[in-house]
Amino acid sequence: MRFPRRLGWFILGIVALIGVLYFLSMIGIEPRDLLETSFMAMTPLILAAVGECLDEKAGVVNVGLEGIFLITAVTGVYWAEVVGNGVGGLIIGGAIIGGIIGLLFGIISTYGKAAQVVAGMGLNVFGLGFVPFLLVALWAFPGIHMFDPSLVIRTIDIPVGGGIFRLSPVTIFAIIVVIVVDIILYHTLLGLRIQAAGEKPEAIDVAGVNVNHIRILASTVCGALTGIGGAFMPLGWFGGLVKEITAGRGFIALAAVVFSGLDPILAAVSSFIFGFSEGLAFTVMITPGVKEVVPHYFIKMIPYIATILALAIVGSKRFPRALSKPYIRE
Amino acid sequence: MTSAAVQGVKRLFQKLKRPLLESLLAIIIGLIIGAILMAIFGYDPIAAYSALLIGSLGSFDGICESLANATPLMLTGLTFAIGVKSGYFNVGAEGQAYLGAIGAIMIGSTIHLPYGVHLAIATLFAMLMGALWSLPVSALKAWRGVHEVVSTIMLNWIALFFVRYLIEYHFYEPGRAERAMPVLPTARYQVLGASLTTVIFVALAFMLFAYFLLWRTTLGYELRLTGSNPEAARYIGINSTRVIFLNFFLGGLAAGLAGATQVLGRPPAWTIYKTLGNVMNLGFDGIGAALIGRNHPIGIIFASILLGVLSYGAKFMMYLGVDPDLARAINGAIIIALSLPELYRIIRRLIVGRGAE
Q1: Domain-located, residue B266
Q2: Do the Cβ atoms of B147 and A311 come within 8 Å?
C-alpha cells in the first residue's frame, strides 16, 4: 500500500532534481561538484535524523543532537589519531562515545524523569563549552586542530562526465541505515514495541515489556548514529577540526525529523534537500561571476533559510502521544 | 505586627526552600562535573577554582567585571524565562542579541544627537531590532505551527551572517576592518568601574518591568495561564496568537537590550567585532541563568550574577592552562541537573533517609 505511492514521489523528486541541476548548469554551476558536496552535507544529517526518528518514535525527544555532533567531532578525531585510522575514530570516538551520551540521555529521560527538551538544550550548551576546552586540553591549541590527512576516510572515486565524483563510504552506510531502520520500525516486533513505547506505553507494559528499556535502547542508537555523523564531519568531509564545525547542523537534522513526521525514509529525503541547499551554498560561493556580485554572507544563509521555508510549507505534523513524557506506571 | 512579619518571612522561606535547594544542588553538581573534567585532563581543579574566585571576587575591578558579564545574561535569561512562562521554548535570544548590538551601532555611531537623547534612542532602537527579529518566529509558530526551537536556531545563524555582512559592508571602522565603528561618546553609558557601566541599572529596570508585566497585569496573566494551562486559556477565550506574538516580542526586546549592553555599555571597545566574539553565546548562557533563577525575574538577577562570576573568573583559569570556555560546559551541566526533578528527591533520600518522603 505504502510503497507504490512513495515510488511515485521518488520518481517525481528525481525528475525535479535533474531539472534543477540542468537549470544550474546553465548558469555555470557544475552539477557534479554540487551533488558531491550535497551528498557529503547530507550524510551527518541523515544519520542524526534517522536516529532521532527512532528515538522520538519510542517517546524520547533529544534536542541535544548539536551537542552530540560537537563532542563526537572532537572525540572522533582524537580516537582516529590514537588508533591511527579514520574509520577507527568514526567507530570509537563517534559511535561508541555518541552511544554513551545517548545511553545517559536515555537513562535521565526515563528513570530520571527529565524535562527532555531542557536536558537536550543543556547538552547543547555543555557541548558548546566542552569542545573548546577539549581542544585545548587534548592538543594545547585553542579553537582549531589540523590532523594528518592520511586519517581522512578515503572516498570511492567514480569517473563521471570527464571528472571524478567522490562518494564517501559513510554516505552509503547512512543510506543502508535508513533502510534498516525503516524495516525494523515497520516490519519487526521490536519496531512495533518501539512505536508502542511512544504511542501507548501502557500497552507494552501490560504485555510484559519494559518501556524504559525500549526507550533507552532507542536513545542509545540515536546517540551512536548521531556520533558517527559528528565524527564524519572532520574525518570524512572537512579534513580539519574547528570548534564551530557543526554550524547548527544538529538543529537542521532536527528540522528534517519534524519535516518527515518521524518517517525514516522521508527524513532521509529531507536530509538530502537540506544537504543540497548546503551544497548549493558551497558551490555558488566559489562560482566565478556570482561571488563578486552577491556577498558570501547571503549565500551562507541558504541552508538555514531553506530549513525554515521547508518547515513553513509542511506546517505541523502529528507526533507520538507519549512523546517526551516519562512513563509512570499507575 | 512583628510576629506577622516573621510569619510572612517564614512562609516566604518555606515557599522558596525547595527551589533554592534545587538550584544550589544543580550548581554544586555543575561545579563537581567541571572539576572532574579538569582532573581527567590533568589540571588541578582546586587551584583552578581558587584562581576563578580570586580573579572574579578578589578585587573591586573583578567584581565590576563580573557584574558587567552578568548584565546581558539576565536579559537573555529573561527572554528564555518569558518563553517558558508562556509555554514556549524560546532559544532565539542569541540571534536577537546580535541584532540588538548592530542596532545600537546603527544609531550610536552614525547619528549625532545630544547626550541623553542619543543614548536613549540607540538603546530603544537596539531593543526594537531584537524584537523585530523575533517576528518571523511568532509568525511561523502562530500560522504554520513551526517548532520554535528549530526556527529560532535557524534565525540565530541567519542573524550571525546578516550582522557580519552589515559590519563588513556598511558599518566597519575605517582602518580597522575587523570591527564595527565604535559608538560616539554621546551614546555611551557612564563607566562605574572597570567595564561596568550604568547600563546595568537599565537592565535591572527592565527585569522589574518584566516582573510587573508578568505578575501584575492582565496581559501577563494571559501569558502565564497559556503557559501553565493552555486548555484553560483557550476555554476562557485568550487569543493564543496574541500570546505567541507578545511573548516572543517581549523576549526580543530583552535580547536586543542584551546586545546593546555590549556596545553602548561595555568599554573599552564600545563596539562589536566581526567575529561577534563579544556578543556570541550570550543567548545560550542566558538559558542557564533562567533555569537557575527558576524563570523568575528576581531569581534570574541573582543567577546571572553567579554566572557572571563564573564566566569572568574562568578567564583566570587560563593561567593554569584551562580553557575558559569550561564555564559554559559547567553551565550546561547545571542546566541538565536542573532538568531532573528526581535528582533532588534522590539526594534528599540519601541524606535524610528513606522515611523523609
Answers
A1: yes
A2: yes
